Amino acid sequence: MRENAINGYDVIIVGGGPAGLCAAMYAGRGMLKAVTIERGAPGGELLNTDLIEDYIGFESIKGWDLAVKMSEHAKKFGAEIVTDTVERIRKVDDGWFDVVTSRGALYRAPAVILTAGGTPVKLGVPGEQDYAAKGVSYCAVCDGAFFKGEVLAVVGGGDAAVEEADYLTRYASKVYIVHRRDQLRASKILQQRVFANPKIEMIWNKRVVEIKGTGQAVDHLLLADAITGDPVRLRVGGVFIFIGFKPNTGVIEGHVKHDAAGYLITDEKMMTSIPGLFAAGDVRSQVTRQITTAVGDATTAAIAVEKYLAALREKEKAAVGS
Ligand code: NAP
After folding, report:
1. Any residues with Cβ below 6 Å from ligand 1, and which?
2. Domains, the chain, ranges and CATH?
């Protein structure tokens, strides 16, 4: 299969969200030959976000618009973006990486920057799978408009839950935020916004036990009090679940250092415990995961790749000379 490998790249960037696109732009500026492999449209989580209000320099911009701007900017510096799904990343004996895609392509390069983001965490309760796309959703921007005039529940207490609950009030007549504790994890500014929104009601200290419906649509949630265990029935036409992200690191073959939640541990150059494998954005273990941190990681990673490859070439030259 190696004979069919697509060679000639200095670095393979896996994922085309803000981190991937920024890495592609810096790789281009650094005259590296790079390919960015993205399974969907470039933009990643930006495409699931309505308005971005915390990306410095853009007081308010639509997620889609920022995605297009980032992608065009990367392309201006020569980014090659391929639509395909990476299935496996493996460092082989010659020190290079094999990156295998679902279309059967094998890309080879001496460095990889993994910017594959994460996948929404599931509640894991009965009814969640049965009502997926029938009232259970993980993306307010994608599905909110289907719930005009309905009563909705949002599950979670982090930035995503409160931000998306606020967004859903454009369509819904009322939005409950169901949280398992009596305090939100979300940032203060986002908390203030939801507390000031008359369409949002907090339901504290409750866990979702089951999602029930008519077979075709969600009809109510069964909740349990987190302290007493007392059951509560909550009538809703849909439920949006925002209880965190799981990093997409399963494509890496072999052991790579990670934290307890599965996020990749890197050094200050964004290099993982596998030399030549760099990580940036939501896959990386860090305090917060914002667009600003993703592009910061990616900048460091792309510049560090340049230095890593230069050192590698020096080493190879020295080995030939000795
Ligand atoms: P998060 O910050 O990890 O919050 C997850 C929330 O879900 C927490 O409130 C947690 O409760 C709750 N939760 C977790 N497992 C649960 C379960 N099994 N049942 C019920 N509730 C559960 O995740 P996130 O909101 O997706 O944000 C992820 C990262 O993206 C964060 O770093 C965040 O700052 C960032 N982000 C930023 C913005 C922005 O700034 N505009 C927007 C979206 C996301 P506990 O609090 O009790 O643990």
Report:
1. 54, 123, 155-161, 163, 180-181, 185, 242-245, 288-290
2. 5-120+245-321 (3.50.50.60), 136-241 (3.50.50.60)
